[in-house]
Amino acid sequence: MRSYVPNTEPERQAMLKEIGLSETEELFSDIPRNLRLSRPLDLDKGKSEIEVRRIFKAFAENCESSMPVFRGAGAYRHYIPSVVPKLSMHSAFYTAYTPYQPEMSQGMLQAIFEYQTLICQLTGMDASNASVYDGATAAAESMLMARDIKRRRKILYSAGLHPDVQETLKTYARFAGMQAVSVPLFKDGLTDREALVKELKDSAGFILPVPNFYGLIENQAEIADLVHEQDGLLISYLNPISLGLLKRPGDSGADIAIGEGQPLGMPLSYGGPYLGFMACKAKFTRNLPGRISGETTDADGNRAYVLTLQAREQHIRRDKAASNICSNQMLCAITASIYLAVMGPGGLREAAVQSTQKAHYLAEKISSVKGMRLRYPNTPFFNEFVVDSDRDAKKIDKLVKDRGLIGGLPLSYANKGDNGILYCVTEMNSKSEMDTLISALEVSK
Amino acid sequence: MNSRSTIPLLFERSRKGRKAFDLPPIDVPKTEHPIPAGLTGGEPPLPELSEVEVVRHYTALARRNFGVDDGFYPLGSCTMKYNPKINEEMPSLFEDIHPLCDFETAQGALDMMLGLEKALCEITGMDKFTLQPAAGAHGELTGLMMIKAYHEANNQHERNIMIVPDSAHGTNPASAAMAGFKVLEIKSAPDGGVDLEALKAAVNEKTAGLMLTNPSTLGLFESNIKEIAQIVHGAGGLLYYDGANLNAIMGIVRPGDMGFDVMHLNLHKTFSTPHGGGGPGAGPVGVKKGLMPYLPKPVLAEKDGKAFFDYERTMSIGKVKSFYGNFDVLVKAYAYILSLGGEGLREASENAVLNANYIQKKLSGTYHIEHDRLCMHECVITPGELSKYGIHTLDIAKALIDRGFHPPTIYFPLIVKEAMMIEPTETESRETLDAFVDAMLEIAEIAKADPEALHAAPVTTPVGRPDDVAAARKPVVRWEENE
């Protein structure tokens, strides 16, 4: 059995004696006897490091994770420079708690302040929080922000949002007593503007994914005008890598910018931990949920950082707080900061351009495969696209996997009965991988 | 000696044209203007640095931060125990698994989650867990939504009041409000426990449930828990267990046996996955059978020896986040549980409680012990007599920093004025506890002889006490070019 308790048995006995006890059991005398567990926990005996390693290796070997991936759909495999995990795993970061004592946590507080700035630079916004759990909960929190800002209990969201994000929004809305209304997509795969305008009256805002789940790029500026005409907020839900190339939401009239930050240096890791980012225009800063680091000075005028605007938070406001969030995804936010610092403006641009270019190459190749066609051939897309075909999507998926590739996502995940496949390409996918995929699609019947 | 220093921000280190990234040249024929010009923008105005500058910057930031690996961190209610290194290595085995690959491809990951779920059921006495919630507060919200869904499914729509003791963590009332409940706060009894009479008076046909931390935030076990459960259940409500303080009772007593219906765990506290400077954590939620239909989607299931996610859940509250949870954190927690085994978990709790009592005993006489009896895994003290020298809890905390210790949680629980909540955890040696006690006793002496010296603390840190009032009055939450 592994033990991380330093004190030896004699030391423990001596300590017990100092408290005036003779047996460990006496420490628990407040717990009624008839409640106590009268047997040992029914768990395996503790294991050595070697044994633990073997167990996890066996779990990992029972997964097939070394294949090239053409699947995104909310979780993207981008290149993670070696520096990123090396630096974020500094023990002074990962073994720390939330920086409640600023004098001994200046490193973390400055790192948060820098993260907030990077997210603002990326989105064109004025203020950012220190993160929430993931993109889906960022969307849910932004819905509550919009409710509080506009004092309206109806929120609109695009049917082009990631299905998990839609599901999460609906859950939060139900319990917050809000009405979350889906705005359908037009046949070009973008927001049906007529339907949007119909629903906008008395809505707190509209959550618009850019690019959307199907990879398609919306015109935020035009949608923003429609939303603002009815005094609603435009909330843009973003893929941060795409911001290396696309117009920033802050420059396109969006009021709040949120999204899933996983592509910024986090591995796929079967779905988490990822990073929910949230940024907004200055006038909504006090409506942001969660931790925020702010700049101030100490008594001698030295620049210093502290957790600020805490009057919004649960430990002060309790049931009147902007949100219940306490722990967030701080280390993931640091990871994203390091990623952005390493990539810089040129690197982020390059990752976005390569993803776009390669996706367009693959889209063209696939649409030349007999019986396969793009679902939205005339709509601009970033690095994902939908392919329809006469063959069964699940069967194609299986055949591609037999060739050693994780292919696109069968869209039955999002909509029952949808036989499309959503492909994703990043800078990680080489031409030869794509050519292998094409040949698999060509021969598979 | 002057310890004060500032270091430049990333943005102040930026120099035009520097770069740290390197991608291979693009290997496919170019598509001209794949995206119309109206939708594209310029390069985002990020800083430009070389790789070595990024490395030195973050290394410098790390030097200005304090973690468990740097020293004693007795932050009450946060369980800052040592984070074993092997646990940090295990997640990389799974880092390339896409969350939307088929179950066969991810079978080993699913098996790992099943193993963890079963272990958590045994440790807590609950029947089923969801691993989806990302943190303790997220677990609370999820559990409370399930309580609401349960009452609604039973046509008890009027049950919209959640009772929360005044000693509770701030997340409790905040989560209850987010789940759509009205919060009814009840005062604690003089002994710090739930006031049974107040509880009896509070429950009625509108009661949805009671949220309880046991041991409480005062570090005391609620001996009347059976009576409390009877009162709440008798009125038709459910009992919610806030698992923040589970480190006191592993292998000794289980929430499921105390009468709790729903609970969350903080894997980043009790099960030693690190706190990451504020996250990521994981807040799995456990339930008794009757609440299983309401678990968030998807639910981990097993058929013919194969694990899979079951989405066909008509009574489910729905999803509470993307995908299935903070998977890496789950891996680390399971590695911890496998390492310690049942016996080791009990040993951890025993020593956590022993260490807390040892500190409480050694500080009694100098500091005021709020409830002078055996405590569980943490104790709550106040400056007591030292107040008359004009010394506050904040001064003591800052003086501890100068002595190389992270201060305890301060000014919480709210029901104790000038509270210091000390949670040493089991992974501290007797010498460390003694050194901390000596520092506390020395600070008490200085408080009497030279209180001004304490008001100046900390003096050994890069900055002195920051001006929070100014920070909040005119918030500067990002760097700007023209600064």
Largest sheet of chain B, described in full?
7 strands, mixed
Count up the helices of chain B.
14
Q: What is the domain tally of chain A?
A: 2
Strand order of the largest sheet of chain B: 1-7-6-5-4-2-3
Strand content of chain B: 5-15%
Q: Round the Cα radius of gyration of chain B to an integer and report it.
A: 25 Å
Shape of chain B: globular
**CATH topology category name of the largest domain in chain B:** Aspartate Aminotransferase, domain 2
The average pLDDT score of chain A comes to 96
What is the CATH domain class of the largest domain in chain B? Alpha Beta
The CATH topology of the largest domain in chain A turns out to be Aspartate Aminotransferase, domain 2
Q: Main sheet of chain A: which strands, in order across?
A: 1-7-6-5-4-2-3
Number of strands of chain A: 13
CATH superfamily of the largest domain in chain B: Type I PLP-dependent aspartate aminotransferase-like (Major domain)
What CATH architecture of the largest domain in chain A do you see? 3-Layer(aba) Sandwich
Give helix % range of chain B: 25-40%
- Measured as a percent range, the helix fraction of chain A is 25-40%
Helix-strand pattern of chain A? HHHHHEHEHEHEHEEEEEHHEEHEEH
Keywords, separated by commas or semicolons:
heterodimer, A: 445 residues, Aspartate Aminotransferase, domain 2, Aspartate Aminotransferase, domain 1, 2 domains, seven-stranded mixed sheet, four-stranded antiparallel sheet, 13 strands, 37% helix, B: alpha/beta, 3 domains
Describe the overall structure:
The complex is a heterodimer of chains A (445) and B (483). With 445 residues, chain A is α/β, with parallel strands linked by helices. Chain A has helices at residues 9-18, 49-61, 83-88, 91-94, 106-123, 135-150, 163-176, 193-200, 220-229, 314-317, 330-367, 393-402, 431-443; strands at residues 127-128, 154-158, 179-183, 205-210, 233-238, 256-260, 276-280, 293-297, 303-307, 372-374, 384-389, 409-410, 421-424. Chain A has 2 domains: 83-339, 3-Layer(aba) Sandwich (Aspartate Aminotransferase, domain 2); 345-443, Aspartate Aminotransferase, domain 1 (Alpha-Beta Complex). In chain A, helix 6 (135-150) packs across helix 7 (163-176) and helix 11 crosses helix 13 (431-443). Chain B is 34% helix and 11% strand. Chain B is built from 14 helices and 13 strands. In chain B, the strands form 3 sheets. Chain B has a 7-stranded mixed sheet, with helices on both faces. Chain B has a 4-stranded antiparallel sheet with strand order 10-11-13-12, with helices on one face. The mean pLDDT of chain B is 96. Classes of the chains: A alpha/beta (445), B alpha/beta (483). At the A-B interface, helix 1, helix 2, helix 3, helix 4 and helix 5 of A face helix 2, helix 4, helix 5, helix 6 and helix 10 of B.
